[in-house]
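S.,

As promised, the coenzyme A run. Input:
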Amino acid sequence: MAPPAVGADGTAAVQRWSWWLRVVTLFTEPVHAKRSVRAPPDPVLTQRLVLTPVGPDDVDDLILLYGDPVVAHWSGPWTRAAVQGWAATMATRWTVDGVGKWMARDRSDGSLVGRGGFTRIDLDGETVLELGWAVRDARTGRGYATELGRAALAWAVEHRPDLPVAAFTEVHNRASRAVMERLGMRPAGIIRRAGLVEGRAGVQPDAPFALYRL
Ligand SMILES: CC(C)(COP(=O)(O)OP(=O)(O)OC[C@H]1O[C@@H](n2cnc3c(N)ncnc32)[C@H](O)[C@@H]1OP(=O)(O)O)[C@@H](O)C(=O)NCCC(=O)NCCS
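Predicted complex:
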């Protein structure tokens, strides 16, 4: 759109120009507000980990992680296409919601430790930040999930204090529950969703999950 021509009366021309600017702003502001696209935030550093927003470049590392037997037991099995889809969704979540899961790598050598952090979800009508984690089988039992969880909680206080934090896992996932408890989260009841049931084979549609809140 061309700006209005400058007339003999300079003041009137400036007024007309600023009127045009207001019109343009009126039409463009809602478009930007609706899109609300933001750049993924900077990596988060913990004592031993570097946390980076999950994106399409992480597919190979995610396939390694989800291929570990214990991780696969609780969160798999995953096909390559499913991992690609999840990584793409996470990249979108970061740009649209401003929050998502991180990859966790060793600060000292960049080796893969796991993934974790938040997903903004609707939990029975309430918008919450769901906190989760998965650590490579060979690196469990060394406090990595707790370290990641602690960093995530600190990040949420700074970046998303408006949203409550919740975490949930199958009632018999004792390692994951132990992490929630070490982070100071409290049991908040049982919810039902698709998952594992102790003593039964395969994913059940209404498995009991232990819900924790801060
Ligand atoms: C759950 C998981 C992320 C924990 O990772 P981690 O780095 O080993 O966790 P941490 O070392 O920070 O803490 C592990 C805690 O679980 C406890 N734990 C480990 N295995 C356990 C078990 N079988 N039963 C009870 N507690 C167990 C550890 O003792 C420790 O607690 P403590 O320090 O109070 O003793 C990891 O086991 C994993 O990736 N599991 C598969 C994926 C998964 O289940 N993700 C959660 C889905 S909601």
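Strands lie at 44-45, 49-53, 101-106, 112-123, 126-135, 165-170, 186-195, 204-213. Confidence is low (pLDDT under 50) at residues 1-35.

- D.
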